[in-house]
Fold each of these.
Amino acid sequence: MRFVYHPDAKASVLEIGGESYTHIFKARRHDKRTPLTLCNLTDNHLYTYHITYLDRNKAYLELVDSMSCAPVSDRVVHIIWAIVDPKIVEKTLPTLNELGVTKLTLFFSHYSQKPFSPNLPRLHKILTRSCEQCGRSTLLELEVLPDLDSVLSRYGDCVALEFGGVVLESANLRENLQGKSIIIGAEGGFSPDESARLPHKVSIAGELVLRSESACVFAASVLRLL
């Protein structure tokens, strides 16, 4: 664990109780004698605190140092993902966070599992725990849109990962993907109506069919390297 998330990290004095106390001192078993590094996931800083008081359900901390962190990436990496089973989203989210995705937009497509809806507080908690482990000091931005039309009206220059598009090879990656938002369908891809409205489509060389979450990880990995 690189640090512990706390929304008020930066304050000269902190009182920690409730869920934060349980996470730090019971789940993580942090020693009172060891300085505690906190991050608020908003300002690219780590804050070191000395524990001045600790009892069974409360702790008081005093700020002793701060350090700026390098940003996770010098470019925007934006993935637009049609909503799938929330368990799949939750399992994939830490990987996208570790790969430096700047923003993840979720939307309902024709093939999305409609009874499911993203639980944003739960996804936020998953992201904070991922940041604590990998050391990312800014939070991946989450956005939910109701349908493909909303996506296209907001991100009209997006590129869809879809069969039948321009084949991605090393020679044309930058030309087709650099600076673009990448849109990925649910299981089964896009419906014929949706596919006809996509402004630009690319596909992966070969005949392999990727799962929706695998396509997200692939796109994030490629964009991170461009």
Amino acid sequence: MPGQLLELHVENFRSLRDVTIPLGPLTVLVGANGVGKSNVLKVFDLLADVIRTDLEPALETRGGFDEIAFWGGPKPPTTLRIRLKATWTTHSSPNAPDEYDLKVRRYSAPSNKDNGRYRLTRSESFQFKRTRGRGRRITVSGERATVVDTRPSTELEGSSEFGIRRLSSGLSTLPRLASTEGGSEVSLVADQLSSFRVFDVNVDAARLPTRLDLRRNDLSSSADNLASFLFLLSENTTLWERLVDDARSVLPQLADIEFASVGGRADQVSINLVERGLRRATPLADASYGTVRLLGLLALLYDPSPPALTCIEEIDHGLHPQALQLIVNRLREASALTQFIVATHSPALTDRLQPEEIVICERDGEGASLIPAINTDEVRAIVEESGDLPLGELWFSGVLGGDLTGDEL
């Protein structure tokens, strides 16, 4: 993978009052319903929306600051913060990562400028490593953005300033900067974040024939173009044979996967499943829920050109337990091309993970998510003390947490 997110820090976003989450190529959020797993994914959805529409529209779409700020505790928070560390740009490394920090502050006093509503301000900072020195730092505050650049030849700092709209985000506006002022670096960060997707197979839509569009080679986040995506993927013989073999290993009655044009139209394609013992192929429209969802996940995991970050909620939903080891293996392989954040409350799936792949999620008495509830070293120590019992068994029994109470805010 060319680079990846290393860490997410969030303050006062929904149930995430104050969490710092380490992220690897494959990170699996393990916890009961309502502990905040989905809110972690919603952070990235917010950032992607900020890039597409800017900060103020992204907040308003979600009901405004008060709707997304932490609801627990004795009084409402006045600050929301999101900070990322990553290795996306050329000279970054785990020891000298790219850093992005966004703070949104709410002022309760009405302002005539804001039509009597509360007033918001934002501040942002970007930090990028250069070949020498501290690198390039970009700060955004009020209506001013400042670029500070350590010059490798002299180790002296040069700076420049320019205007920016009061609630505009640097993620959406600064990519237009010249490359000498950090535009290319901010653009790379924005591109990585904007490619984020939460993948969740819409089984009813995935069953249907889809239009074959040779200009589009990506799998949609709901897999509603599953037939056309698999058809294009089948042109890569090696990938296709592996995918079909995987499907056969979970669906023993499956002999092959075929495609057919719909109604004589060459631009409409459907999927037929050739099953042993049957005289005719089974249209995907008549296949079981689990079969359709399995094919959607395999399509995702064999995507040769995935986005930088893929999130999957309740990945085990609808799958037979014998499919879980296969899915975990393919997740690990696919994480060489895209970083995964996966949410689950399945002990059977968790059993198949390594300590460095899981993040235990809980909630405290005030509704705040505890993520991670225990760190990786503690997980390893508990596994060793238990005599190497599977992680899912340890979590479900409560040894690794497993608080089954609480409703997600």
Amino acid sequence: MFIISNAYAQAAPAANTATGLFGLNPNSLGTVIPFVLMFAVLYFLMIRPQMKRQKEQKAMMEALGKGDEVVTAGGILGKITKVTDSYITLEIASGTEVVVQKGSVTTLLPKGTIKTAL
């Protein structure tokens, strides 16, 4: 017939009670450090410079005034003739004006650039 052997339970391994920095297991600390370092590098190489550019763009938008020469995102060069909260009116040729959103302005040019460019 069938012979069934006795099954014996194994002893549980001893619990590792050693804790390291912030109460973490020293073995798990080695897996956390690379993630922290990757986030720090990501912050200083990508996030921080982008925030700086956004701040500069916002300051430029607020400083726009009548007579400034600008370039829009579509590549249109023009002189500002009117400024409102959301829109600006550009004179792109003598007697030709277009209305664009303030957010479409990408570059503020030095005075006299349009005359030298044409």
Amino acid sequence: MTLTSKTSPATSPEPAGGHAASRKTGASLRSVTRIVDWPMSRLQRLIGERRMPYIFLLPNLLFFGLFVFVPIAINFVYSITGGPALFPSDRPYVGAGQYTYLFECGSYVDPSTCREDHFWRGVYNTLFFTFFQVATMVGLSLLTAIVLNMKIRGRGFFRAVYFFPVLLSPVVVALIWKWILQRDGLLNAAITGLGSDRILFLAEPGWAMFWAIFVSVWAHMGFYTLILLAGLQAIPSDIYEAAEMDATPRWRVFWRLTLPLLWPNLIVVVVLSLIRAVQTFDEVFVLTGGGPGTSTLMVVQYIYETAFSNQVQNFGLAAAASLVLGIVLFALTLAQLAFTQRKSS
């Protein structure tokens, strides 16, 4: 009896054409490698092996400098010059005049006493928005992360649902909610269907600010929930098992164990949400346009309108306001680094 064996697909020989194509591709790659290796090897002999990482970083540093440091320098030049001219060479030097104009106030508590009252209304609106938005964001993100860390049914589905708004463009988010909240929108349709009168959600100052905060929290909460959820999952389960064996109350476990171990993540969440809230623009601008009046006017919107939207464009004043905002954001970043280093030490 003669046995015939079949060659399995895994061990079957490749066609001759396949070998030829592979050899040709390998030869091409080796040629490209030799072309790149020739100048790099000579450069390494010239400057030394330890300096080679800077060569690889140089293109990124050039682009970073071109699109970050150069605009900052140009912005500073605009902030110390005046006039309506666009080119810096045509703008007269005014020194700190733009900053003096911004901070000239009878009372900083009352924006109406300031010479540039729109700037200070934007400052106070931004402070109000930042305080309540960050507090709500951090609280809801922490609560949501704790719930999603539990063994609940459909946990993967709910994690995706909470993160989905983060994937949307802020402009798209604002347009969706504007369609819901406008005078003849979906929410008012439901209210009138129940027999009540329409509510002008975006035309009354109190309601407009409330919904600006709500929409911002709704849009970004998933990102911060993910950070806190990662921190919760990094906490060893042995700690909770030991606390359960000691019959420790849940509130005490949270206060004494979970919160201290989650503190580095909380610091990151607070600082990142602060930075985002201080420079908020697109969502609020599309949703309310800064109105009604100036009730939801933010600092970034003031900068944009002063430089580009107003009938008389004041590039110097907008540049000065943007540098003030940049200093605030830089201070928040330094605070994050200081808190993180202090906690890790």
